[in-house]
Amino acid sequence: MGFNEFISKLFGNKASRDMREIQPWVEKVKAAYPAISELSNDGLRAASAALREKIQSTVTEERARIAELKASIENTELEKREAVFNQIDKLEKEVLEKLDKALDEALPEAFAIVKDSARRFAESEEVVVTANDFDRNLAAKFDFVTIDGDKAIYRNHWQAGGNDTVWNMIHYDVQLFGGIVLHKGKIAEMATGEGKTLVATLPVFLNALTGNGVHVVTVNDYLAKRDSEWMGPLYMFHGLSVDCIDKHQPNSDARRNAYLADITFGTNNEFGFDYLRDNMATQPSDLVQRQHNYAIVDEVDSVLIDDARTPLIISGPVPRSADQMFEEYRPLVERLVEAQKKLATQFLAEARTKIYSSNKDEVTEGYLSLFRSHKALPKNKPLIKLLSEPGVKTGMLKTEEYYMEQNNRRMPEAVEPLYFVIDEKGNSVDLTDKGIELITGNSPDQNLFVLPDIASELSMLENDDKLSNEEKVAKKEQLLTEYSIKSERVHTINQLLKAYTMFDRDVEYVVTEDGQVKIVDEQTGRIMEGRRYSDGLHQAIEAKERVKVEAASQTFATITLQNYFRMYHKLAGMTGTAETEAGEFWDIYKLDVVVIPTNRPIARNDMNDRIYKTKREKYNAVIEEIDRLVKEGRPVLVGTTSVEISELLSRLLTLRKIPHNVLNAKLHQKEADIVAKAGLSGTVTIATNMAGRGTDIKLSKEVRDAGGLAIIGTERHESRRVDRQLRGRAGRQGDPGSSVFFVSLEDNLMRLFGSERISKILDSRFVGFKDGDMIEHSMISKSIERAQKKVEENNFGIRKRLLEYDDVMNKQRTVIYTKRRHALIGERIGMDIVNMVWDRCCHIVENYTFEDAKMEMLRLMAIELPIATEDEFTKGDPEKNAEKCFEAAMASFKQRTERMAEIALPFIDFVYKEHPEMHEEHIYVPITDGRHVYQIPVNLKAAYETRGKEVIKSFEKAILLHTIDNAWKENLRDLDDLKHSVQNASYEQKDPLLIFKLESVTLFDKMVNKINDQTVSILMRGQIPVQEREQKNVKVAPDPKQRRPQQRYSETKVDLNDPNQQAAAQRDTRENVKREPVRVEKTVGRNDPCPCGSGKKFKNCHGRNL
Q: How large is the angle between the packed helices 878-914 and 949-981, nearest 10 degrees?
């Protein structure tokens, strides 16, 4: 017995400990269930309403106190507001803590209510209850509810995902386990067919009772819409509102209402983009999201692991767009690649003749040529074929080890003849001296593509005593400018080389009919709409494909999904394949993975991998296996790692006249239909490994008797999780089935990450084998899984590195978005202005001489320095001096704002009384700082009721939003540039991430100082230019709600807002609307009786505003 087995036997493994922890909760639910099941339908709904009231009443006092404090803010001095807001924040944390305790207490009863509701819908075609207003509203929108007098009749069938669905599910015990795990904020790993969607109804219902909102996150819009329609009636029966954000346009009232629902479904991308849009909003009415309370992420590994590598970005055109050099340097790179191809072919030919020689020196030379060919073009098919021959790969690996000794000391000698060197594992391409010489040609500047040693040259300049300080500065600027230009030039060449040598059309990307390059998701084969490769790689691919090279863009707002989901108060997830990534879930999200036992034992036969020498032999074996299984009457699901392989297998099956379906994952509805038919006898379905998530393959009795669903994997994926996902399609709820993977030595995983040990074993096994022979052994399968584990660790490192970069930006993002939200809502804007004034006063006192401080106070605060003598300024207590400056500045500010309100009030009174039709409108009030005139939109009614104070508040808000947005955009642009430029630090043996962290702090401090300077300077000088109160001077500002759908700013806010930013924020980021299933919606004629049962015509009741 091994040590791990001994420890497990002594203390129990993690799975058994998890079950022991959850079991008491399950027993409590089962104990509460009998009493709930005896209630009438009305009694059941009354119990859920009482539970909702009980949970929310636990925080009644705290919420009342928060409301009281918020109401007192307007009458509190600006300087004293911070303490009030700190008290509010503390109370809000207490509210969340109390609600969590109340939810734990309510869990047994809530779970019992949901389970019994499911039973009633499963056992009865109609569930009749006493109708309330909520039921009547539902009846006007949905078919499954009808009103008959004072009764509401809920039917047990409804439309979900375009299909008529009959409810036939009741929670069983292991689903209660899963529900408890999700409520506790953990990941529930449940096998395919165990009903994850039903499991989620338990914690979703419970947490929705707080009224704080629950988000259910899915991987695609079809599942979001389907699940909201499928599970929605169960929640609606108990008075909980349900909606799906993907059904509604961004920035619309409908989407805002979807977030106000108790339970909100949506895709991960749309939740993230809405967060970014909210932080680009210019009016409080533009905001759609509430506080991030509780989220359950379906297929959590796909969302938080796979999608986390690509940040969400809202971008627009660069105002100072530089000339792009991709098309200019494309011919040079094409010449370079052609020369390398010839060289690689030459080395490969040499290797073929020499590695089988009897002369030892010739064999050594042959393997060196083979290694050079590998470094030149590792994806070259003849090379891959040669490496699959017995002993060849082992020999090349030994050669590589020799040249990598002593920290790659001899590697330059090995790659010297090449034009560039490709590191496929590291996803990098590096030019050699020979390559630089080829593309430089006869150019007068032979260092055109050579980066200077900037550190050495700067050091030499610094030590040059012959130069004056001014000459040194000029020389440094010239040197840095030259370095920047050359860096961009070298970067362009490198990205073009990557595009030509490492990215293949119809594998990593596709080119659409309208000439757009679109990324293909390597996991699912889906086109990733709206995603672009970063760092100019996408433009390089566009240049390679000779389509339009899109202009460089700038980032307006960005966030990684990792940082977005870490904002939730409580986060949970569910999937069938999370255990292999448990370490990453804990390290990044602090999410524990709990494996939930299956309801019935798994009967699937998972066979050992079958290994072949070449891909050709492997695919022939796959076709033979499919043919055999079809003749046995078994359905076959063939998993592939790319769309290209799917199409190849489809062609081979067509030649053999074997009917089959190729799953087109671009249309989710089609995907669901194909997967639904994939369980029929003799049906062959080809799909990518991750396709079919969220859909189960159900088998008939005939198919079960024949042996169940057969899974054939045509290649091991880099991640064990993806292979498990494919295996999990069979063996649903105790169904029989089988799974087997076909592997060849030419596969990417074996080629890149197969160890030398595997190579030696396979070489010895394949000696004397005939064409088409295979190896099958558990030891080989385990070795392959170890290779997968290496890749997973590598990918985790890449994702963690990405997160570390984004964490730097996230700290800045949190500060800026908080300031921006304060300005937008207006509630805490006064506190922020006070802090800005205090910050500037401290900065002036601590960093300036007496004379400079006088000038700075005039420049920023528009007042004299309130310190009389230089002696008092230099020798006095800095904090007391700062306090004097602050008090003088605040007194001046209050005086100015009171004067503005006084001047504005007669004009407001005049317009309000003379134009009653404009009471709800926004009017423009011109305010100047002496240099610019800002047209500030002010709500007329609010300005009249507050006696002009609303004018001041609107002015403060507009200026703060304007300065924050401009500074943040510039900072993001600088961070993008910095992230690119710091990569060159690796040439100086420095960590780019460390340099990025240090430099980003400097950029952030600079940005904050700029925001504070500009805001304070404008606000402290604000005044209303005196004008005649004439009718013609009254300008009405357009309603922000009417502006939103136009996808641009109106002309009224040109001075304060960037129209490009607004256009970017308004873009529809939802998946293609054509993917929505076609179905007939319930329609009611305007003159028909309203379905709510009121007796009125529809046009006079629920159809009044339609």
A: 120
Q: Work out the pLDDT band at 132, boundaries 50, 70, 90.
A: very high
Q: How far apart are CA 755 and CA 784, in angstroms?
A: 9
How far is 987 from 998, CA to CA, in rounded Å? 18
pLDDT at residue 838 tops 50 = yes
User: What distance in Å separates the CA atoms of residue 594 and residue 16, rounded to the nearest whole number?
Assistant: 10
Pick from 197, 183, 232: which is nearest to 26 by CA?
Answer: 183
DSSP-assigned letter for residue 1033: G
Structural contact between residues 926 and 1024, judged by C-beta atoms closer than 8 angstroms: yes
What angle, rounded to 10 degrees, do the helices at 949-981 and 829-847 form? 60
Distance CA 905, CA 709 (A): 78
- Measured distance CA(941)–CA(934) in Å, rounded: 21
**The pair of three-digit structure tokens given for residue 291, joined into one six-digit string:** 């506080």
Residue 91: is it exposed, middle or buried by C-beta count within 10 angstroms (0-12/13-18/19+)? middle
Q: How far apart, in whole angstroms, are the C-alpha atoms of residue 151 and residue 129?
A: 6
- In degrees to the nearest 10, what's the CA dihedral of 99, 103, 104, 108? 170
Confidence at residue 826, expressed as pLDDT on a 0 to 100 scale: 79
- DSSP label at 1024? P
Count CB-CB contacts under 10 A for residue 301.
31
Alpha-helical segments (H) within 982-1100: 992-1021, 1040-1043, 1059-1066
What is the rounded CA–CA span in Å between residue 1009 and residue 914? Answer: 45
Residues 6+ apart with CB under 8 A from 207: 103, 183, 214, 293, 294, 570
Q: pTM here?
A: 0.76
| Cα–Cα distance for residue pair 266/217, rounded to 1 Å | 5
Beta-bridge mates of residue 737: 604, 709
- According to the model, what pLDDT value does residue 1059 have? 62
Are 702 and 638 within 8 A, CB to CB?
no
Handedness of CA 843, 845, 850, 856 (dihedral sign): positive
CB burial of residue 394 (10 Å; 0-12, 13-18, 19+): middle
- Using only C-alpha atoms, what is the Rg of the chain? 34
Q: How many residues does the chain have?
A: 1106
Q: Which residues does 858 contact at the CB level (< 8 Å), separation at least 6?
A: 864
Per residue in 6-48, pLDDT (tens digit) is: 455 555 567 778 888 899 999 999 999 999 999 999 999 999 9
**pLDDT of residue 1031 exceeding 60:** no
Q: What is the 3-state secondary structure (H, E, C) of 162-228?
A: CEEEECCCCCCHHHHHHHHHHHCCCEEECCCCCCHHHHHHHHHHHHHCCCCCEEEEECCHHHHHHHH
> How far, CA to CA in Å, does 378 sit from each of 372, 423, 503?
10, 8, 12
114's tokens: 């949901």
Residue 525, burial from CB neighbour count under 10 angstroms (0-12, 13-18, 19+): buried
C-alpha span between 850 and 146 (Å, rounded): 80
Rounded to an integer, what distance in angstroms lies between the CA atom of residue 827 and that of residue 960?
13
Q: How far is 759 from 755, CA to CA, in rounded Å?
A: 6
Measured over all CA atoms, what is the biggest interatomic distance in the chain, rounded to whole angstroms?
106
Q: Are 535 and 496 in contact (CB under 8 A)?
A: no
CA 353 to chain centre: 51
Q: DSSP assignment of 746-801, as one string? A: TSHHHHHH--HHHHHHHHHHHTTPPTT--B--HHHHHHHHHHHHHHHHHHHHHHHH
Query: In whole angstroms, what separates CA 815 from the centre of its chain?
Result: 20
At residue 1080, the 3 state secondary structure works out as coil
The pair phi, psi for residue 847, each rounded to 5°, is -120, 0
Q: Which two tokens stand for residue 349?
A: 């030919």
E strand or H helix at 559: strand 553-559
